[in-house]
Write a structure and sequence with these properties.
Blueprint lengths: L2 H12 L2 H10 L4 E2 H5 L6 H13 L3 E6 L2 E6 L2 H11 L2 H28 L1
Antiparallel strand pairs: 1-3, 2-3
Length: 117
């Protein structure tokens, strides 16, 4: 699969807030479909459809542990997406530097006020 095609599939899978929430849960550890259903007002088949999209995108894998079918997060596609986004860091970096400068000024002013009291 071409890298850009894979990125398309990754970002399409990540575009849905439920799928992002599922990934956030799986970042804490493996979980069954029932465990993943708990925080959502959604049926198990609906969650299973989201899991299938995530699995097809390579963002999760599923295996068996006795009676349970556990899902786990797979980092490869997210690492590729992150690497792609890093290419745009130069657009954000000046803003981060200005923010750092502003925070340092605020800390210095706060320290000065405390000394004056």
């Amino acid at each position: 699969m071409e890298s850009i095609d894979r990125l398309d599939i990754t970002f399409q899978a990540l575009a849905d807030p439920t799928r992002r929430a599922i990934l956030a849960r799986l970042a804490q550890g493996e979980a069954s479909v029932n465990e993943l259903c708990e925080p959502f007002a959604m049926s198990q088949p609906a969650i299973s459809r989201h899991l299938k999209v995530l699995e097809q995108a390579g963002l999760i894998s599923r295996g068996r542990d006795a009676q349970r079918r556990l899902s786990r997060i797979e980092g490869g596609p997210m690492a590729e997406a992150n690497a792609w986004l890093e290419g745009f860091r130069r657009f954000w970096e000046p803003s981060f530097q200005r923010l750092d400068g502003l925070l340092e000024e605020m800390k210095a002013e706060e320290a000065k006020r405390r000394k004056e009291k």
